[in-house]
Amino acid sequence: MAYDEKLAARIRAVLGDRKDVVEKQMFGGVAFMVRGHMSCGVVGTSLMVRIPPDQHDALLGEPHARVMDFSGHSMRGFLFVDAPGIATAAGLARWVGRATTYAESRPAKKAAAKTRAAAGKKPLTRRRVPPGR
User: Fold this and answer.
1) Rg from Cα positions in the chain
2) pLDDT digits (tens, 9 = 90+) for 66-109
3) Spatial separation of the C-alpha atoms in residues 42 and 35, rounded to whole Å
4) How far apart are CA 6 and CA 28, in angstroms?
5) CA dihedral of residues 68, 88, 100, 39 (deg, nearest 10)
6) pLDDT at 123 exceeding the cut of 60
7) Apex CA 39: angle with CA 36 and CA 40, to 5°?
8) Residues 62 and 85 sit within 8 Å (Cβ to Cβ)
9) Fold (CATH) for 5-105
10) Is 5 left (phi over 0), alpha (psi -120 to 50) or beta?
11) Nearest CA among 102, 85, 87, 108 for reference residue 40
C-alpha cells in the first residue's frame, strides 16, 4: 500500500531537527519513532497518532479523528486523523505534538543490539554433535 509522501514530508518538517526520531516502514506506510517509541505515522492518506490511552475517548471526539481499526480490531491509544483535520500546519503540529508528547513521557528504549550481519560478522553456525556424545 502506498502512503502520502507529501504528508510524511510535512511531518518531517514538524519534527524538525530532533535527534531522537527514526523512521520505519510499518502498516504499509511510514512510522516516526521518538526515543524508540512509535509516535505517529502515515497510513494511506491518514495521519496515525499514538496517544495516551486515557485520552483516547476525548481525542476521538475531535473533528476528523477516528478509531484506528487496522485489521478489523480497534486499538486503544491509536487514532487516525483524516486529511481535513491536518490540512493546516497548525492542525498537523497539534496532532504530531500530542503524539510526540506521549512518546516522550515513556522511558527511552535502549538501542537495539546489532545483528551479527549488521556488525560485519559471519553468522553463527551450528555444529552437529553425533548422538551419544
Assistant:
1) 19
2) 999 877 788 899 999 999 999 999 999 999 999 999 999 998 87
3) 18
4) 16
5) 30
6) no
7) 135
8) yes
9) Aspartate Aminotransferase, domain 1 (3.90.1150)
10) alpha
11) 102
Model pLDDT for residues 28-53, shown as the tens digit of each residue:
899 999 999 999 999 999 999 999 99
- pLDDT given at position 113: 45
- Long-range contact set of residues 116-119: C-beta below 8 Å, sequence gap at least 24: none
Question: How do the domains of the chain map onto residue ranges?
Answer: 5-105
Which own/partner contact pairs does 40-45 have at CB distance under 8 Å and 24+ positions apart? 40/11, 40/95, 40/96, 40/99, 40/100, 41/11, 42/3, 42/4, 42/7, 42/8, 42/11, 43/1, 43/3, 43/70, 43/80, 44/1, 44/2, 44/3, 44/4, 45/3, 45/4, 45/7, 45/82, 45/83
Query: What pTM did the predictor assign?
Result: 0.80
Angstrom distance (rounded) from CA 69 to CA 66: 9
pLDDT at residue 5, as a whole number? 96
